[in-house]
Amino acid sequence: MATGKINVSVENIFPLIKKFLYSDHEIFLRELVSNATDATLKLKHLTSIGEAKVEYGNPMIEVKIDKEAKKLHILDQGLGMTAEEVEKYINQVAFSGAEEFLEKYKDSAKDSGIIGHFGLGFYSAFMVAEKVEIITKSHKNEPAAHWICDGSPEFTLETHSKTERGTEIILHIAEDSVEFLEETKIRELLTKYNKFMPVPIKFGTKKEALPKPEDAGEDYKTEYIDVDNIINNPNPAWTKQPNDLSEEDYKNFYRELYPMQFDEPLFNIHLNVDYPFNLTGILYFPKLDSNLQIQKDKIQLYQNQVFVTDNVEGIVPEFLMMLKGVVDSPDIPLNVSRSYLQADGNVKKISNYITRKVSDKLKSLFNENREDFEKKWNDIKIVLEYGMLSEPKFYEKAGDFVLYPTTDDKYYTLTELKEDLKDNQTDKNGKLVVLYASNKETQHSYIAEANAKGYKVLVLDSPIVSHLIQKLEADNENITFVRVDADHIDKLIQKEDEAISKLSDEEKEKLKLAIEAVIPKENYTVQMEALDSNASPFIITQPEFMRRMKEMSATGGGGMFGMGNLPDMYNLVVNTNSEFATSILNSNEDAQKELVKQALDIAKLSQGLLKGEELTAFVKRSFDTLK
């Protein structure tokens, strides 16, 4: 029997591991199962190139709980270790087994799928164990080794009677970690971290029904046998070639990832690149509503099929974090706990690649079946609009497939829109005016007036639309976006000089004073306008600039400082050519107040601004006039 001290650069590594090196104690199981997988895949590679003169067979990893003895076992049938290798890879923490292995076999091992390394990953076991044993038999013809350490730098290393190839790790669970002796807890961790490991993982057994014999009678009772309970899928969809997968395969994998998600994904994007970095994965566009809540933790990050984190910030572009799916790359640099990303050039390249791949997929979907793409537009638009604002490389490509729907359910790209509107919606100054509504119902009367003049009105109803149109205006010369209720339609797209008012300047001033005496001055500015005599007498509008700045301020950035806190301001446009304006002028003071109040309430009602007590009073007053 040999004894000695573990060769580390601090007097006692274990308190350091427990307190600082790992942020989450539960990942010990991921590390140990990952090491077992490493050992199995290394053996597979060595047998394939003739270095290991053994049968690879159909190895599996097994996790067992001995609750009574307070022990947790992790067993593999991989390449195992000699006593010398235990001394080197376990006791001399400064060495990394996988790094040396990869260096020796770097040419032939390039595509062998080797995951990680021995070394510090193994020592995560001491986060939950007061004593750890390793019983290991190498694939080489040498005696098995038995290593024991109780959480101090001292260890013992002796021979063991084990005859089967592979390694068994035995954790003597500490009193403060007995939760890891519960079957439900271990199953939860294996499912979370090892669900798609490339080697089968056994955890207990399960009952499986035997086939019913052909000659069985009506009184036959189904018979069951115990079979290995394999908790993982070693060959998940993202590890396969896109040509080998059907649409149903992609949908089935989505259900496997999100068993509690009942909506089908709209479409998927299969990531598959091996140069200048390795990256595989599948991203799904789920159905989204029009809100800006980024639903994080929906994309899972793996490193060669080992779950790392569901926080993919920095790897997946921010606008795509509303998607779901899997990204897997051995080239993403991780610290020893595999939990936090270190920013470097590879990560940025990966992010750029994903952006390009998503752009290309969207363009092909648009070109191949535009009608279907249009049907899905409302479910995906928030992602694409956010991408245009946040990712310059995506914005460059977005013009090919981003759509702008109209109130009559027609869809245009920006290029198509400019071409279609230029003849009818260019004002007298040569500027193309794009009208839009944020709500077809509440702005219906304004949309109807615009349509009556042959104008098209877009429906732009996402919370970031103010930011988006600000960017589009900056990047497209002689184009302006104006919400359809920002002014009277004749003012929004001015074709001629101002119409002549029927009222004299003196009469207009008198009318203005009569109206201002009734309306709340802190919210409304009265504007006297000479409009068509058939136009509404009172129209409430909200100035485009002020409203847009408030919206941009409310959704973050872009607006003037503090504008989001300002009260809503409206213009009350009074049509001086309407008969109603003349009626007000010709009425006594009391009648003027009643007329103005009723007309203002009607105008507010058309904008959805009449609510609560005011609405109740308006309804009662209106019924009273019918008596």
From TrEMBL:
Give the matching PROSITE patterns: HSP90
* Keyword vocabulary terms for this entry: ATP-binding, Chaperone, Nucleotide-binding
Q: Does the keyword NADP apply?
A: no
Q: Identify the InterPro entries for this entry.
A: HATPase_C_sf, Heat_shock_protein_90_CS, HSP90_C, Hsp90_fam, Hsp90_N, Ribosomal_Su5_D2-typ_SF
Q: Which CDD domains does the UniProt record give?
A: HATPase_Hsp90-like (cd16927)
One family from Pfam that matches here is HSP90
The residue stretches assigned to a coiled coil in this entry are none
UniProt xrefs under PANTHER family: HEAT SHOCK PROTEIN 90 FAMILY MEMBER
Protein family per UniProt = Belongs to the heat shock protein 90 family.
Protein name, per record: Molecular chaperone HtpG
Organism of origin is Flavobacterium nakdongensis
